[in-house]
Amino acid sequence: MISTSAFTCRTVRGLRNQRRRLRPRKDPRQETDDPTTSRRVAPDGSRLVRRFLVLRGFSCSEMEWCDCIEPQWHADELLKSSFFPYRWVLIQFGAFIVLCGSTHMLNLWTFTMYSRTVAMSTTVAKISTAVVSCATALMLVRIIPEMLSVKTRELFLKNKAEKLDREIGVLRAQEETERYVRMLTHEIRSTLDRHTILKTTFIELGRTLNLEECAFWMPSRNGLNLQLSHTLHHLMPLGSVVSTDLPVINQVLSSNGAIIIPHTSPLARTQPLTGRYVAPDVVAVRVPLLHLSNFQVNCWPELSVNGYAIMVLMLPSHSARKWHVNELELVEAVADQVAVALSHAAILEESMRACDLLLEQHVALDSACQEAETVINARDDFVTVMTHEMWNSMHATIALSSRLLETELTPEQRWMVETMLSCGNLLAAVINVVLDIAKPEGGSFELEIAAFELHTIFREVTNLIKPIAAVKNLSVSLTVAPDLPSCVIGDEKQLMQTVLDVAGNAVKFAKEGHVSITASVAKPDFSDLQIASDEHFYLCVQVT
Predict the structure, then answer these.
(1) Could you confirm whether domain 190-270+277-345 is CATH 3.30.450.40?
(2) Which of 468, 537, 457 is nearest to 506 (CA)?
(3) Predicted TM-score of the model (pTM)
Protein backbone atom coordinates (compact mmCIF):
# COMPACT_ATOMS: atom_id res chain seq x y z
CA MET A 1 0.00 0.00 0.00
CA ILE A 2 2.83 2.37 0.85
CA SER A 3 4.54 1.76 -2.52
CA THR A 4 1.29 2.35 -4.40
CA SER A 5 0.73 5.63 -2.60
CA ALA A 6 4.29 6.67 -3.27
CA PHE A 7 3.73 6.00 -6.99
CA THR A 8 0.62 8.17 -6.84
CA CYS A 9 2.53 11.01 -5.21
CA ARG A 10 5.30 10.86 -7.78
CA THR A 11 2.77 10.75 -10.60
CA VAL A 12 0.86 13.76 -9.28
CA ARG A 13 4.10 15.69 -8.77
CA GLY A 14 5.24 14.80 -12.30
CA LEU A 15 1.88 15.82 -13.72
CA ARG A 16 2.11 19.08 -11.83
CA ASN A 17 5.52 19.87 -13.35
CA GLN A 18 4.34 18.90 -16.84
CA ARG A 19 1.12 20.84 -16.53
CA ARG A 20 3.01 23.94 -15.42
CA ARG A 21 4.78 23.98 -18.80
CA LEU A 22 1.48 23.75 -20.66
CA ARG A 23 -0.73 26.07 -18.59
CA PRO A 24 -0.16 29.59 -17.22
CA ARG A 25 1.11 29.72 -13.65
CA LYS A 26 -1.42 30.61 -10.98
CA ASP A 27 -0.99 33.74 -8.91
CA PRO A 28 0.53 32.67 -5.55
CA ARG A 29 -1.64 35.24 -3.82
CA GLN A 30 -4.69 33.21 -4.77
CA GLU A 31 -3.57 30.33 -2.54
CA THR A 32 -4.16 30.60 1.21
CA ASP A 33 -3.05 28.64 4.25
CA ASP A 34 -5.43 27.09 6.76
CA PRO A 35 -3.96 27.94 10.20
CA THR A 36 -6.02 25.27 11.95
CA THR A 37 -4.73 22.34 9.98
CA SER A 38 -1.44 23.73 8.48
CA ARG A 39 -2.65 22.68 5.05
CA ARG A 40 -2.80 24.60 1.80
CA VAL A 41 -6.27 25.41 0.50
CA ALA A 42 -7.21 25.86 -3.16
CA PRO A 43 -9.02 29.03 -4.27
CA ASP A 44 -12.26 27.05 -4.66
CA GLY A 45 -12.15 25.91 -1.01
CA SER A 46 -11.19 22.30 -1.65
CA ARG A 47 -8.57 20.75 0.62
CA LEU A 48 -5.42 19.30 -0.75
CA VAL A 49 -4.74 15.61 -0.84
CA ARG A 50 -1.66 15.79 1.38
CA ARG A 51 -3.45 14.41 4.45
CA PHE A 52 -4.56 11.47 2.35
CA LEU A 53 -0.94 10.79 1.49
CA VAL A 54 0.03 10.99 5.17
CA LEU A 55 -2.60 8.38 6.03
CA ARG A 56 -1.13 5.99 3.48
CA GLY A 57 2.12 5.89 5.44
CA PHE A 58 4.26 8.79 4.18
CA SER A 59 4.29 12.55 3.99
CA CYS A 60 4.53 14.45 0.72
CA SER A 61 5.39 17.76 2.34
CA GLU A 62 6.79 19.24 -0.86
CA MET A 63 3.58 18.81 -2.80
CA GLU A 64 1.80 22.04 -3.73
CA TRP A 65 -1.72 22.62 -4.87
CA CYS A 66 -2.47 22.44 -8.59
CA ASP A 67 -5.64 22.31 -10.62
CA CYS A 68 -4.54 19.39 -12.79
CA ILE A 69 -7.09 17.09 -11.05
CA GLU A 70 -10.67 18.18 -10.68
CA PRO A 71 -12.05 17.59 -7.12
CA GLN A 72 -14.67 14.84 -7.07
CA TRP A 73 -15.56 15.10 -3.35
CA HIS A 74 -16.36 17.90 -0.97
CA ALA A 75 -13.57 19.28 1.19
CA ASP A 76 -15.16 17.84 4.38
CA GLU A 77 -15.02 14.37 2.90
CA LEU A 78 -11.32 14.72 2.24
CA LEU A 79 -10.83 15.47 5.97
CA LYS A 80 -11.94 11.93 6.75
CA SER A 81 -8.69 10.64 5.27
CA SER A 82 -6.64 12.42 7.95
CA PHE A 83 -5.20 10.69 11.03
CA PHE A 84 -7.03 12.44 13.89
CA PRO A 85 -10.64 11.29 13.21
CA TYR A 86 -9.52 7.70 14.08
CA ARG A 87 -7.92 8.41 17.48
CA TRP A 88 -11.00 7.09 19.31
CA VAL A 89 -10.69 3.82 17.43
CA LEU A 90 -7.13 3.44 18.70
CA ILE A 91 -8.22 4.31 22.23
CA GLN A 92 -11.01 1.74 22.04
CA PHE A 93 -8.60 -0.91 20.76
CA GLY A 94 -6.20 -0.07 23.60
CA ALA A 95 -8.97 -0.20 26.20
CA PHE A 96 -10.23 -3.47 24.77
CA ILE A 97 -6.76 -5.02 25.00
CA VAL A 98 -6.25 -3.73 28.55
CA LEU A 99 -9.66 -4.97 29.67
CA CYS A 100 -9.07 -8.37 28.06
CA GLY A 101 -5.75 -8.66 29.87
CA SER A 102 -7.31 -7.57 33.14
CA THR A 103 -10.11 -10.10 32.73
CA HIS A 104 -7.61 -12.88 32.11
CA MET A 105 -5.55 -11.84 35.11
CA LEU A 106 -8.65 -11.83 37.33
CA ASN A 107 -9.61 -15.27 36.02
CA LEU A 108 -6.42 -16.61 37.59
CA TRP A 109 -7.92 -15.93 40.99
CA THR A 110 -10.88 -18.17 40.26
CA PHE A 111 -8.77 -21.37 40.40
CA THR A 112 -8.67 -21.05 44.18
CA MET A 113 -11.00 -19.71 46.71
CA TYR A 114 -11.79 -16.12 45.86
CA SER A 115 -13.64 -13.43 47.61
CA ARG A 116 -16.73 -11.54 46.57
CA THR A 117 -14.54 -8.58 45.60
CA VAL A 118 -12.66 -10.68 43.03
CA ALA A 119 -15.95 -11.89 41.58
CA MET A 120 -17.30 -8.37 41.30
CA SER A 121 -14.04 -7.16 39.71
CA THR A 122 -14.12 -10.00 37.19
CA THR A 123 -17.73 -9.27 36.34
CA VAL A 124 -17.06 -5.53 35.89
CA ALA A 125 -14.01 -6.27 33.72
CA LYS A 126 -16.01 -8.62 31.50
CA ILE A 127 -18.89 -6.17 31.19
CA SER A 128 -16.45 -3.34 30.33
CA THR A 129 -14.71 -5.58 27.79
CA ALA A 130 -18.05 -6.39 26.17
CA VAL A 131 -19.05 -2.72 26.06
CA VAL A 132 -15.71 -1.67 24.55
CA SER A 133 -15.90 -4.54 22.06
CA CYS A 134 -19.40 -3.49 20.94
CA ALA A 135 -18.33 0.15 20.67
CA THR A 136 -15.28 -0.85 18.62
CA ALA A 137 -17.43 -3.00 16.34
CA LEU A 138 -19.86 -0.13 15.81
CA MET A 139 -16.98 2.21 15.05
CA LEU A 140 -15.50 -0.25 12.54
CA VAL A 141 -18.86 -0.45 10.77
CA ARG A 142 -18.43 3.23 9.96
CA ILE A 143 -14.66 3.18 9.36
CA ILE A 144 -14.38 0.17 7.02
CA PRO A 145 -16.43 1.79 4.18
CA GLU A 146 -14.35 4.92 4.56
CA MET A 147 -11.16 2.89 4.28
CA LEU A 148 -12.50 1.23 1.15
CA SER A 149 -13.46 4.62 -0.27
CA VAL A 150 -9.88 5.76 0.30
CA LYS A 151 -8.70 2.90 -1.88
CA THR A 152 -11.29 3.86 -4.49
CA ARG A 153 -10.06 7.42 -4.46
CA GLU A 154 -6.51 6.23 -4.81
CA LEU A 155 -7.45 4.20 -7.86
CA PHE A 156 -9.32 7.20 -9.26
CA LEU A 157 -6.27 9.43 -8.84
CA LYS A 158 -4.10 6.79 -10.45
CA ASN A 159 -6.44 6.49 -13.45
CA LYS A 160 -6.66 10.26 -13.69
CA ALA A 161 -2.87 10.51 -13.65
CA GLU A 162 -2.58 7.89 -16.40
CA LYS A 163 -5.17 9.75 -18.47
CA LEU A 164 -3.27 13.00 -18.05
CA ASP A 165 -0.06 11.20 -18.99
CA ARG A 166 -1.69 10.07 -22.22
CA GLU A 167 -3.01 13.56 -22.95
CA ILE A 168 0.38 15.10 -22.27
CA GLY A 169 1.95 12.47 -24.51
CA VAL A 170 -0.45 13.44 -27.29
CA LEU A 171 0.31 17.13 -26.77
CA ARG A 172 4.03 16.42 -26.82
CA ALA A 173 3.65 14.39 -30.00
CA GLN A 174 1.67 17.21 -31.62
CA GLU A 175 4.23 19.75 -30.50
CA GLU A 176 7.04 17.57 -31.83
CA THR A 177 5.19 17.14 -35.13
CA GLU A 178 4.69 20.89 -35.45
CA ARG A 179 8.36 21.47 -34.72
CA TYR A 180 9.42 19.00 -37.39
CA VAL A 181 6.96 20.54 -39.86
CA ARG A 182 8.31 24.02 -39.17
CA MET A 183 11.86 22.79 -39.59
CA LEU A 184 11.08 20.95 -42.83
CA THR A 185 9.05 23.89 -44.13
CA HIS A 186 11.98 26.22 -43.49
CA GLU A 187 14.32 23.89 -45.36
CA ILE A 188 11.87 23.41 -48.24
CA ARG A 189 11.07 27.11 -48.60
CA SER A 190 14.75 28.05 -48.64
CA THR A 191 14.85 27.41 -52.40
CA LEU A 192 12.51 27.79 -55.36
CA ASP A 193 14.09 25.16 -57.58
CA ARG A 194 11.71 22.21 -57.86
CA HIS A 195 14.40 19.53 -58.01
CA THR A 196 16.19 21.04 -55.01
CA ILE A 197 12.88 21.16 -53.10
CA LEU A 198 12.29 17.43 -53.56
CA LYS A 199 15.90 16.55 -52.79
CA THR A 200 15.86 18.62 -49.59
CA THR A 201 12.52 17.11 -48.56
CA PHE A 202 13.79 13.56 -48.95
CA ILE A 203 17.00 14.27 -47.05
CA GLU A 204 15.19 15.89 -44.12
CA LEU A 205 12.47 13.23 -43.98
CA GLY A 206 15.05 10.46 -44.16
CA ARG A 207 17.03 12.00 -41.32
CA THR A 208 13.99 12.79 -39.16
CA LEU A 209 12.11 9.51 -39.59
CA ASN A 210 15.14 7.26 -40.22
CA LEU A 211 13.83 6.13 -43.60
CA GLU A 212 15.38 3.57 -45.86
CA GLU A 213 14.03 5.07 -49.08
CA CYS A 214 11.88 7.93 -50.37
CA ALA A 215 10.44 8.09 -53.87
CA PHE A 216 8.45 10.65 -55.85
CA TRP A 217 6.21 9.45 -58.68
CA MET A 218 5.11 12.06 -61.23
CA PRO A 219 2.14 11.59 -63.61
CA SER A 220 2.79 11.52 -67.32
CA ARG A 221 1.43 14.04 -69.81
CA ASN A 222 -1.64 11.92 -70.61
CA GLY A 223 -2.19 11.00 -66.95
CA LEU A 224 -2.26 7.24 -67.66
CA ASN A 225 1.10 6.40 -66.05
CA LEU A 226 3.29 7.38 -63.12
CA GLN A 227 7.02 7.75 -63.64
CA LEU A 228 9.67 7.70 -60.92
CA SER A 229 11.45 11.05 -60.98
CA HIS A 230 13.33 11.33 -57.64
CA THR A 231 14.63 8.93 -54.97
CA LEU A 232 16.67 9.28 -51.79
CA HIS A 233 19.12 6.35 -51.90
CA HIS A 234 18.44 5.20 -55.49
CA LEU A 235 17.19 1.79 -54.40
CA MET A 236 14.59 2.03 -57.16
CA PRO A 237 15.63 2.70 -60.77
CA LEU A 238 14.75 6.19 -61.98
CA GLY A 239 12.39 6.33 -64.92
CA SER A 240 10.34 3.32 -63.80
CA VAL A 241 6.76 3.49 -65.04
CA VAL A 242 3.60 2.10 -63.42
CA SER A 243 0.03 2.33 -64.62
CA THR A 244 -2.47 4.49 -62.77
CA ASP A 245 -5.09 1.75 -63.18
CA LEU A 246 -3.56 -0.30 -60.35
CA PRO A 247 -5.86 -0.62 -57.30
CA VAL A 248 -3.17 0.54 -54.87
CA ILE A 249 -2.61 3.73 -56.88
CA ASN A 250 -6.33 4.44 -57.05
CA GLN A 251 -6.50 3.89 -53.29
CA VAL A 252 -3.70 6.39 -52.66
CA LEU A 253 -5.12 9.00 -55.05
CA SER A 254 -8.59 8.73 -53.53
CA SER A 255 -7.33 9.09 -49.94
CA ASN A 256 -6.90 12.50 -48.33
CA GLY A 257 -4.14 11.33 -46.00
CA ALA A 258 -1.16 9.02 -45.81
CA ILE A 259 -1.96 5.30 -46.01
CA ILE A 260 0.11 2.16 -45.52
CA ILE A 261 0.59 0.12 -48.69
CA PRO A 262 2.09 -3.37 -49.17
CA HIS A 263 5.85 -3.52 -49.56
CA THR A 264 5.28 -5.64 -52.68
CA SER A 265 3.47 -2.77 -54.41
CA PRO A 266 5.04 -1.50 -57.67
CA LEU A 267 5.37 1.90 -55.98
CA ALA A 268 7.70 0.42 -53.32
CA ARG A 269 9.47 -2.30 -55.27
CA THR A 270 13.18 -1.88 -54.55
CA GLN A 271 16.26 -3.71 -55.66
CA PRO A 272 16.83 -6.97 -53.69
CA LEU A 273 18.97 -6.55 -50.59
CA THR A 274 20.88 -9.28 -48.78
CA GLY A 275 20.04 -10.06 -45.17
CA ARG A 276 16.49 -8.75 -45.31
CA TYR A 277 14.28 -10.68 -42.94
CA VAL A 278 11.48 -8.21 -42.01
CA ALA A 279 9.05 -6.72 -44.50
CA PRO A 280 9.33 -2.92 -44.17
CA ASP A 281 6.33 -0.70 -43.55
CA VAL A 282 5.63 1.55 -46.56
CA VAL A 283 3.51 4.70 -46.58
CA ALA A 284 2.21 6.54 -49.64
CA VAL A 285 0.60 9.99 -49.77
CA ARG A 286 -0.68 11.99 -52.70
CA VAL A 287 0.81 15.42 -53.45
CA PRO A 288 -1.52 17.82 -55.28
CA LEU A 289 0.14 19.63 -58.16
CA LEU A 290 -1.49 23.01 -57.62
CA HIS A 291 0.10 25.00 -60.44
CA LEU A 292 2.53 23.08 -62.60
CA SER A 293 2.68 23.86 -66.28
CA ASN A 294 5.47 22.40 -68.45
CA PHE A 295 6.29 20.15 -65.45
CA GLN A 296 7.88 17.11 -67.07
CA VAL A 297 9.51 14.01 -65.72
CA ASN A 298 13.15 14.66 -66.35
CA CYS A 299 11.55 17.50 -68.29
CA TRP A 300 8.43 17.78 -66.06
CA PRO A 301 5.50 17.24 -68.50
CA GLU A 302 2.69 19.72 -68.68
CA LEU A 303 -0.03 18.78 -66.24
CA SER A 304 -3.54 19.86 -65.47
CA VAL A 305 -4.32 21.82 -62.31
CA ASN A 306 -6.05 18.78 -60.77
CA GLY A 307 -3.07 16.41 -61.19
CA TYR A 308 -1.58 14.41 -58.31
CA ALA A 309 1.87 13.02 -57.69
CA ILE A 310 2.61 10.26 -55.15
CA MET A 311 5.31 10.34 -52.47
CA VAL A 312 6.37 6.94 -51.06
CA LEU A 313 8.30 6.52 -47.77
CA MET A 314 9.80 3.22 -46.59
CA LEU A 315 11.00 2.29 -43.09
CA PRO A 316 14.22 0.28 -42.63
CA SER A 317 13.83 -3.37 -43.59
CA HIS A 318 16.16 -4.67 -40.87
CA SER A 319 13.89 -3.57 -38.00
CA ALA A 320 10.35 -4.29 -36.87
CA ARG A 321 9.51 -0.61 -36.53
CA LYS A 322 5.97 0.47 -37.43
CA TRP A 323 4.46 3.77 -38.44
CA HIS A 324 2.88 5.82 -35.64
CA VAL A 325 -0.05 8.19 -35.96
CA ASN A 326 2.06 11.29 -35.30
CA GLU A 327 4.53 10.22 -38.00
CA LEU A 328 1.70 9.84 -40.51
CA GLU A 329 0.46 13.31 -39.59
CA LEU A 330 3.98 14.62 -40.12
CA VAL A 331 4.12 13.02 -43.57
CA GLU A 332 0.75 14.54 -44.53
CA ALA A 333 1.83 17.99 -43.38
CA VAL A 334 5.11 17.73 -45.30
CA ALA A 335 3.23 16.62 -48.44
CA ASP A 336 1.07 19.74 -48.24
CA GLN A 337 4.13 21.94 -47.82
CA VAL A 338 5.83 20.25 -50.78
CA ALA A 339 2.74 20.90 -52.91
CA VAL A 340 2.79 24.60 -52.00
CA ALA A 341 6.55 24.88 -52.57
CA LEU A 342 6.31 23.18 -55.98
CA SER A 343 3.48 25.53 -56.91
CA HIS A 344 5.53 28.58 -55.94
CA ALA A 345 8.52 27.24 -57.86
CA ALA A 346 6.37 26.66 -60.96
CA ILE A 347 4.95 30.17 -60.76
CA LEU A 348 8.45 31.60 -60.39
CA GLU A 349 9.71 29.61 -63.38
CA GLU A 350 6.76 30.76 -65.46
CA SER A 351 7.48 34.34 -64.44
CA MET A 352 11.13 33.93 -65.38
CA ARG A 353 10.17 32.41 -68.72
CA ALA A 354 7.72 35.26 -69.31
CA CYS A 355 10.45 37.78 -68.45
CA ASP A 356 12.88 36.08 -70.83
CA LEU A 357 10.24 36.04 -73.56
CA LEU A 358 9.44 39.70 -72.98
CA LEU A 359 13.14 40.50 -73.08
CA GLU A 360 13.53 38.65 -76.39
CA GLN A 361 10.49 40.40 -77.80
CA HIS A 362 11.82 43.73 -76.58
CA VAL A 363 15.15 43.09 -78.28
CA ALA A 364 13.34 42.04 -81.48
CA LEU A 365 11.13 45.11 -81.27
CA ASP A 366 14.15 47.37 -80.84
CA SER A 367 15.78 45.72 -83.84
CA ALA A 368 12.60 46.12 -85.90
CA CYS A 369 12.31 49.76 -84.84
CA GLN A 370 15.89 50.39 -85.88
CA GLU A 371 15.28 48.71 -89.23
CA ALA A 372 12.06 50.66 -89.71
CA GLU A 373 13.84 53.87 -88.82
CA THR A 374 16.57 53.03 -91.32
CA VAL A 375 13.96 52.34 -94.01
CA ILE A 376 12.13 55.57 -93.21
CA ASN A 377 15.35 57.55 -93.39
CA ALA A 378 16.19 55.92 -96.71
CA ARG A 379 12.72 56.67 -98.01
CA ASP A 380 12.93 60.27 -96.87
CA ASP A 381 16.28 60.64 -98.60
CA PHE A 382 14.87 59.06 -101.74
CA VAL A 383 11.78 61.27 -101.68
CA THR A 384 13.91 64.34 -101.16
CA VAL A 385 16.20 63.47 -104.06
CA MET A 386 13.37 62.45 -106.35
CA THR A 387 11.35 65.53 -105.49
CA HIS A 388 14.25 67.75 -106.35
CA GLU A 389 15.14 65.96 -109.58
CA MET A 390 11.59 65.42 -110.89
CA TRP A 391 10.38 68.88 -110.00
CA ASN A 392 13.34 70.47 -111.71
CA SER A 393 12.65 68.48 -114.88
CA MET A 394 8.90 69.05 -114.78
CA HIS A 395 9.23 72.76 -114.08
CA ALA A 396 11.68 73.09 -116.91
CA THR A 397 9.34 71.25 -119.31
CA ILE A 398 6.30 73.27 -118.24
CA ALA A 399 8.22 76.56 -118.40
CA LEU A 400 9.60 75.82 -121.87
CA SER A 401 6.15 74.79 -123.10
CA SER A 402 4.64 77.99 -121.77
CA ARG A 403 7.35 80.11 -123.42
CA LEU A 404 6.90 78.16 -126.63
CA LEU A 405 3.21 79.04 -126.74
CA GLU A 406 4.15 82.71 -126.71
CA THR A 407 5.96 82.36 -130.02
CA GLU A 408 4.44 82.28 -133.50
CA LEU A 409 3.35 78.71 -134.21
CA THR A 410 1.24 77.01 -136.80
CA PRO A 411 -2.13 75.69 -135.62
CA GLU A 412 -0.82 72.16 -135.59
CA GLN A 413 2.29 73.13 -133.64
CA ARG A 414 0.24 75.13 -131.18
CA TRP A 415 -2.03 72.15 -130.66
CA MET A 416 0.93 69.90 -129.98
CA VAL A 417 2.53 72.37 -127.55
CA GLU A 418 -0.76 72.82 -125.70
CA THR A 419 -1.09 69.05 -125.43
CA MET A 420 2.47 68.84 -124.11
CA LEU A 421 1.72 71.53 -121.54
CA SER A 422 -1.47 69.78 -120.42
CA CYS A 423 0.36 66.49 -120.04
CA GLY A 424 3.10 68.23 -118.07
CA ASN A 425 0.62 69.80 -115.70
CA LEU A 426 -1.18 66.48 -115.29
CA LEU A 427 2.10 64.70 -114.65
CA ALA A 428 3.04 67.35 -112.10
CA ALA A 429 -0.25 66.75 -110.28
CA VAL A 430 0.40 62.99 -110.27
CA ILE A 431 3.91 63.55 -108.92
CA ASN A 432 2.52 65.75 -106.16
CA VAL A 433 0.07 63.01 -105.13
CA VAL A 434 2.78 60.35 -105.15
CA LEU A 435 5.14 62.49 -103.12
CA ASP A 436 2.42 63.33 -100.61
CA ILE A 437 1.70 59.63 -100.10
CA ALA A 438 5.41 58.86 -99.79
CA LYS A 439 5.88 61.33 -96.96
CA PRO A 440 6.21 59.85 -93.41
CA GLU A 441 3.01 61.51 -92.33
CA GLY A 442 1.36 60.56 -95.63
CA GLY A 443 -0.57 57.46 -96.63
CA SER A 444 -3.65 59.46 -97.61
CA PHE A 445 -4.53 62.55 -99.56
CA GLU A 446 -7.31 65.10 -99.47
CA LEU A 447 -9.65 65.83 -102.35
CA GLU A 448 -9.61 69.34 -103.76
CA ILE A 449 -13.32 69.97 -104.13
CA ALA A 450 -14.20 72.70 -106.63
CA ALA A 451 -16.61 73.42 -109.53
CA PHE A 452 -15.43 72.48 -113.02
CA GLU A 453 -16.67 71.63 -116.51
CA LEU A 454 -17.19 67.88 -116.78
CA HIS A 455 -17.42 67.83 -120.58
CA THR A 456 -14.16 69.73 -120.81
CA ILE A 457 -12.41 66.97 -118.83
CA PHE A 458 -13.39 64.32 -121.37
CA ARG A 459 -12.38 66.54 -124.32
CA GLU A 460 -8.93 67.18 -122.77
CA VAL A 461 -8.43 63.46 -122.14
CA THR A 462 -9.36 62.71 -125.74
CA ASN A 463 -6.94 65.34 -127.01
CA LEU A 464 -4.16 63.91 -124.80
CA ILE A 465 -4.44 60.33 -126.08
CA LYS A 466 -5.02 61.16 -129.75
CA PRO A 467 -1.32 61.71 -130.55
CA ILE A 468 -0.42 58.35 -129.04
CA ALA A 469 -3.31 56.64 -130.83
CA ALA A 470 -2.28 58.23 -134.12
CA VAL A 471 1.16 56.68 -133.80
CA LYS A 472 -0.50 53.23 -133.51
CA ASN A 473 -2.99 54.00 -136.32
CA LEU A 474 -5.90 54.03 -133.86
CA SER A 475 -8.92 56.29 -134.11
CA VAL A 476 -10.38 57.87 -130.96
CA SER A 477 -14.00 59.01 -130.51
CA LEU A 478 -15.83 60.64 -127.60
CA THR A 479 -19.55 60.24 -126.85
CA VAL A 480 -21.17 62.28 -124.07
CA ALA A 481 -24.72 61.41 -123.01
CA PRO A 482 -27.26 64.24 -123.27
CA ASP A 483 -28.34 63.83 -119.60
CA LEU A 484 -24.77 64.18 -118.32
CA PRO A 485 -24.47 67.44 -116.35
CA SER A 486 -21.94 69.92 -117.65
CA CYS A 487 -21.04 71.79 -114.48
CA VAL A 488 -20.24 69.61 -111.46
CA ILE A 489 -18.41 69.85 -108.12
CA GLY A 490 -15.54 67.52 -107.29
CA ASP A 491 -11.79 66.97 -107.63
CA GLU A 492 -11.02 67.83 -111.22
CA LYS A 493 -7.43 66.59 -111.17
CA GLN A 494 -8.25 63.18 -109.67
CA LEU A 495 -11.13 62.61 -112.08
CA MET A 496 -9.02 63.58 -115.07
CA GLN A 497 -6.18 61.34 -113.92
CA THR A 498 -8.54 58.38 -113.48
CA VAL A 499 -10.19 58.82 -116.91
CA LEU A 500 -6.79 59.33 -118.52
CA ASP A 501 -5.45 56.11 -116.95
CA VAL A 502 -8.42 54.10 -118.24
CA ALA A 503 -8.29 55.59 -121.74
CA GLY A 504 -4.50 55.43 -121.86
CA ASN A 505 -4.56 51.70 -121.00
CA ALA A 506 -7.03 51.12 -123.85
CA VAL A 507 -4.73 52.86 -126.30
CA LYS A 508 -1.66 51.17 -124.86
CA PHE A 509 -2.94 47.59 -125.19
CA ALA A 510 -4.92 48.05 -128.43
CA LYS A 511 -2.99 47.08 -131.56
CA GLU A 512 -5.48 48.22 -134.19
CA GLY A 513 -9.06 49.37 -134.54
CA HIS A 514 -10.94 52.10 -132.76
CA VAL A 515 -11.03 53.42 -129.15
CA SER A 516 -14.40 54.78 -128.04
CA ILE A 517 -14.93 56.79 -124.84
CA THR A 518 -18.53 57.05 -123.58
CA ALA A 519 -19.58 59.18 -120.58
CA SER A 520 -23.09 58.89 -119.08
CA VAL A 521 -25.06 58.94 -115.85
CA ALA A 522 -25.04 55.50 -114.18
CA LYS A 523 -28.04 53.94 -112.46
CA PRO A 524 -26.64 51.11 -110.27
CA ASP A 525 -28.84 48.33 -108.94
CA PHE A 526 -26.69 47.61 -105.84
CA SER A 527 -28.58 48.15 -102.60
CA ASP A 528 -25.46 49.05 -100.62
CA LEU A 529 -24.75 52.09 -102.77
CA GLN A 530 -26.10 55.52 -101.99
CA ILE A 531 -29.24 56.32 -103.97
CA ALA A 532 -28.66 59.05 -106.58
CA SER A 533 -30.51 62.30 -106.06
CA ASP A 534 -30.74 65.69 -107.69
CA GLU A 535 -27.52 66.72 -105.93
CA HIS A 536 -25.49 63.54 -106.56
CA PHE A 537 -25.14 61.13 -109.47
CA TYR A 538 -22.94 58.24 -110.54
CA LEU A 539 -20.64 58.79 -113.52
CA CYS A 540 -20.17 55.87 -115.89
CA VAL A 541 -17.12 55.93 -118.20
CA GLN A 542 -16.83 53.15 -120.76
CA VAL A 543 -13.74 52.71 -122.93
CA THR A 544 -14.02 50.17 -125.72
Answers:
(1) yes
(2) 468
(3) 0.42
